[in-house]
């Protein structure tokens, strides 16, 4: 069976660009829409068309869907920084929820029947027990989590009412870079732990701040479930196949390994891989950080037959670090 065109929104960004690579590698025709607010042209392979547009522009999206003959959408575009969502919630509801509403409207009008949505562990808030399965009550503790949960609900209601199905993938902490070195995390003003730590390791920063050492965890720092971006990208390809194979079925799946790693454990592993310690500055808690988030991933494995290939923490760190070194060399060459 020939593979129909897939639209990847936010495909010039970190996770979206890895999904584009996974789709392209698997022989899917792909088109990217990105407004480049946080993505880069270089993240999109030359063979993949990149259309610079805003997903909140329903008319533009309708034209693109029609002209490109799109059969399914992987929707990554959005704003992603939790503390920013607290200081500017109106923008987060607009760029995440309202823009998704526009995109879904365009998809419904153009008869696109499969929608795969980037959701987040932030929809769970701060659950008291881990691992977290998909039946855990969703009680976001910040506007970012709410903006995503509202989008999920919109998709659920639309799938019940119209001839469309959806997959919501709730990512835990995404980390690492393409094992072949073709993409990685680029954005300026990084806030994610491993990205920040790798920037410190290559000399772009003086140190890493450790946000909180008094959490109720064994070493006092927050625990997260770090998933390699290439394993997550592969889950998207499997999810797309499932949506097309079973058009009446929708699903919501956690994406993580089911393994918790503390901030200090992550930094220890980085020091080991790097061979030189990165300076740590112990500081107060960051607002809105739940003590621990670890995925129960049984449904992802059973529903999609997902088999992670890059779960080793050192493998995640090596890929992130070698990407960061390459970025640093490129930037140094540009400045010279
Ligand atoms: N990074 C994580 O750990 C993580 C965890 C859970 C969920 N997610 C979700 O995954 C998705 C991708 O995240 P990422 O880390 O790759 O972020 P990213 O910022 O690297 O990618 C998002 C991309 O969307 C584009 N974009 C933003 N608003 C747009 C709009 N209105 N129209 C068109 N393009 C727009 C940006 O330019 C960027 O290229 C997001 O929806 C995010 O909420 C990320
Ligand atoms: O410089 C830093 C950066 C982070 N941290 C700590 O490291 C942990 C992970 O923080 P990240 O900023 O890397 O990631 P978050 O857990 O805050 O959030 C990420 O994962 C969430 C789901 O788990 C959401 O999806 C969100 O979009 C995504 O950014 C947190 O305890 C944080 O306090 C530090 O100590 N120092």
UniProtKB/TrEMBL annotation:
Keywords (A to Z) from UniProt: Carbohydrate metabolism, Isomerase, NAD
EC number: 5.1.3.2
Reactions catalysed: UDP-alpha-D-glucose = UDP-alpha-D-galactose
Pathway stated in the Swiss-Prot or TrEMBL entry: Carbohydrate metabolism; galactose metabolism
Domain of life assignment: Bacteria
Pfam families: Epimerase
Gene3D superfamilies xrefs: NAD(P)-binding Rossmann-like Domain (3.40.50.720), UDP-galactose 4-epimerase, domain 1 (3.90.25.10)
Keyword NAD: yes
NAD-dependent epimerase/dehydratase domain mapped to chain residues: 6-245
Cofactor(s) this protein cannot do without: NAD(+)
SUPFAM superfamilies (UniProt xref): NAD(P)-binding Rossmann-fold domains
Enzyme superclass (EC): isomerase
Subunit structure: Homodimer.
Family: Belongs to the NAD(P)-dependent epimerase/dehydratase family.
Protein name listed in UniProt: UDP-glucose 4-epimerase
């Amino acid at each position: 069976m020939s593979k129909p065109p897939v639209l990847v929104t936010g495909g010039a960004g970190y996770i979206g660009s890895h999904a584009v690579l996974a789709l392209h590698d698997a022989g899917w025709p792909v088109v990217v829409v990105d407004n480049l607010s946080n993505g880069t042209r270089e993240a999109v392979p030359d063979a993949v068309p990149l259309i610079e547009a805003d997903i909140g522009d329903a008319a533009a999206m309708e034209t693109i869907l029609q002209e490109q003959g799109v059969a399914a959408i992987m929707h990554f575009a959005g704003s992603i920084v939790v503390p920013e969502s607290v200081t500017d919630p109106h923008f987060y509801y607009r760029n995440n929820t309202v823009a998704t509403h526009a995109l879904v409207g365009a998809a419904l009008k153009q008869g696109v029947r499969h929608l795969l949505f980037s959701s987040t562990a932030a929809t769970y808030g701060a659950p008291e027990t881990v691992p977290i399965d998909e039946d855990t009550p969703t009680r976001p503790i910040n506007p970012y989590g709410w903006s995503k949960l509202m989008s999920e609900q919109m998709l659920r209601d639309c799938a019940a009412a119209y001839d469309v199905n959806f997959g919501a993938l709730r990512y835990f902490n995404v980390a690492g870079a393409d094992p072949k070195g073709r993409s990685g995390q680029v954005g300026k003003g990084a806030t994610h732990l491993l990205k920040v730590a790798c920037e410190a390791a290559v000399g772009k920063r003086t140190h890493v701040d450790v946000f909180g050492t008094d959490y109720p965890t064994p070493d006092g720092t927050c625990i997260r479930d770090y998933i390699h971006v290439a394993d997550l990208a592969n889950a998207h390809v499997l999810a797309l196949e499932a949506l097309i194979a079973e058009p009446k079925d929708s699903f919501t799946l956690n994406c993580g390994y089911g393994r918790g790693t503390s901030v200090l454990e992550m930094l220890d592993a980085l020091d080991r891989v790097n061979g030189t310690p990165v300076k740590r500055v112990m500081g107060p808690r960051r607002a809105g950080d739940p003590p621990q988030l670890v995925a129960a991933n049984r449904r992802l494995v059973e529903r999609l037959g997902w088999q992670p290939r890059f779960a080793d923490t050192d493998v995640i760190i090596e890929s992130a670090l070698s990407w960061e070194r390459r970025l640093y060399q490129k930037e140094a060459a540009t400045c010279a």
